[in-house]
Every structure is written in structure tokens, then in C-alpha cells.
């Protein structure tokens, strides 16, 4: 095993650590790791990301459910429409995208490159959300009554995002749970982990019909990520996640910039 591969497997622990601390953000690391460290094709990398993040988030959500930190009613309102859109996107939309996506003279934009650029843009938006120190304190649900209709609509949108680029969308889910469901930030993070698990698993199910998977690689990587989420949940009891997320946000911004420059140059 090369030093580069050892670095990749070690990064799996960081993936779980981030999910445990922030309630999301794991896919922001997994996709670049799979593409640039293990040289896995882009679309397959998003499939692997869905499995790793889904499994890791599910294990973490069990701990949150046991601790009664998850709002199951809000989870259902958000997740039910979300997993419909993520399954349909993964099962039909992504395979139906033309390849190349765009061509003008000698310039050709392949489907893989288009998804990679879209993923990099999402990373930049996620980094901005993490770097900002302010958090939504109250929104439409300031009266304590969740806005289930708006939650369902946001769930549909996040499902399309998850299905297209293999990202769980935690950086979008957590603020929406605060604003539209009136959840305290700690419960929003815990509920987000369960929603990400559901979304990711459903998206992965949409892929297994037409994708050959390397389980000898995928299972050890996922196991290390699960170790990471337990470490993250442990430190979350002592360290303010906001401070760590801000630093992680700058790191994500650097990685996104690197991805764009590497593809352009």
C-alpha cells in the first residue's frame, strides 16, 4: 500500500469526525478523496460517497436517537419527500444526462467534469456557511410550530442535490431545521445526521442497479469513517463545533479552489 493510499484511508477517520461534530460535511471530503487520492471516476466516487456517508451517519444517528436528540416527526416531514427525489435523481436523472454535456468547437464538457464543477460550487457554498460565525436563531418556526410544508419542499430540493452530486446536504439541512422546524442547534445537528443517512442510502440504492462496486475497498474505508464519527461525537461534548467548523470551512474552500484550478489548467 502506497503512502498516498495510507493517507486516503486515514482521511476516512476525518470524514467521520466531521459528521460527528457538525452533523454533515462528510461527502465534501469523501468525493475529493476518492477522485484525487484513489483515482476513482467521478460518478463512481459519488456512489461510494453515498454509501460511506450514509452508513457512517446511520451509526451516528443511532446514538442520537438513543439520547433522544432526534425529532422523528420533523425527520419524516423532511426525509420522505427528500428520499423520493434523491432516488429518482440517482436512478434516472444522472444516468440520463448526456455525455458530453456541452460542446462548442474544440471545447468539450463531459458529464463527469460537469458534475465535478457542480460539486466544487456546492463546496464553496458549504464553506461559506461554515465560515460564517452567525447562526440562525429563529425563523418561520419561532413560535415553536414546525412549517411542515416548507420542510417537505426543502427536502425535495436537497434530495435532487444529493442524487446529483452524492452530497448529503448537511450544510443546508441544519439551518433549515432551525429556521423551519424551530429546533435548537444541537437537536438540528442530531436530526440532520439521520436525514443524511436516509438520503444517502436511498441514493445509493438508486445506483446499485447499474454500478459494479469494489467492496474490498469500500467496507474498510467505511469502517474507519465509523470510528471517526464516534471520535467526533465524543469531542462534541467538550469542544464547541462552531470553532472547528470555521477552520474546516476554510479548508473546504481551499480544496474546492484546488479542484476547479486542477480541472481548468
TrEMBL record:
Membrane topology: Multi-pass membrane protein
Gene Ontology, cellular component aspect: plasma membrane
Source species, domain of life: Bacteria
Alphabetical UniProt keywords: Cell membrane, Membrane, Transmembrane, Transmembrane helix
Cellular localisation: Cell membrane; Membrane
Transmembrane feature ranges: 12-37, 43-62, 74-94, 114-131, 151-179, 185-205, 217-236, 248-264
Pfam families listed in its UniProt record: TauE
Entry annotated with the keyword Cell division: no
UniProt family annotation: Belongs to the 4-toluene sulfonate uptake permease (TSUP) (TC 2.A.102) family.
Protein name: Probable membrane transporter protein
Source organism of the structure: Spirosoma profusum
Amino acid at each position: 500500500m502506497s503512502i498516498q493510499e495510507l493517507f486516503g484511508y486515514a482521511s476516512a477517520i476525518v470524514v467521520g469526525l466531521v459528521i460527528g461534530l457538525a452533523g454533515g460535511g462528510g461527502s465534501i471530503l469523501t468525493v475529493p478523496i476518492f477522485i484525487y487520492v484513489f483515482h476513482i471516476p467521478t460518478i463512481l466516487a459519488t456512489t461510494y460517497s453515498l454509501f460511506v456517508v450514509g452508513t457512517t451517519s446511520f451509526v451516528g444517528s443511532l446514538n442520537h436517537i438513543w439520547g433522544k436528540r432526534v425529532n422523528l416527526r420533523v425527520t419524516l416531514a423532511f426525509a420522505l419527500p427528500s428520499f423520493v427525489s434523491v432516488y429518482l435523481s440517482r436512478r434516472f436523472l444522472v444516468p440520463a444526462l448526456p455525455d458530453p454535456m456541452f460542446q462548442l468547437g474544440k471545447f468539450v464538457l463531459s458529464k463527469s467534469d460537469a458534475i465535478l464543477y457542480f460539486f466544487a460550487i456546492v463546496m464553496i457554498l458549504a464553506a461559506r456557511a461554515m465560515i460564517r460565525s452567525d447562526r440562525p436563531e429563529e425563523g418561520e418556526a419561532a413560535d415553536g410550530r414546525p412549517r411542515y410544508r416548507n420542510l417537505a419542499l426543502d427536502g425535495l430540493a436537497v434530495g435532487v442535490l444529493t442524487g446529483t452530486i452524492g452530497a448529503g446536504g448537511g450544510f443546508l439541512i441544519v439551518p433549515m431545521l432551525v429556521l423551519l422546524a424551530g429546533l435548537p442547534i444541537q437537536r438540528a445537528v442530531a436530526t440532520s445526521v439521520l436525514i443524511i443517512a436516509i438520503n444517502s442510502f436511498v441514493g445509493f440504492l438508486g445506483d446499485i442497479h447499474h454500478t459494479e462496486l469494489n467492496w474490498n475497498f469500500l467496507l474498510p474505508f467505511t469502517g474507519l469513517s465509523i470510528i471517526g464519527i464516534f471520535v467526533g461525537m465524543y469531542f462534541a461534548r467538550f469542544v464547541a463545533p462552531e470553532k472547528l467548523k470555521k477552520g474546516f470551512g476554510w479548508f473546504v474552500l481551499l480544496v474546492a479552489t484546488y479542484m476547479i484550478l486542477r480541472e481548468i489548467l
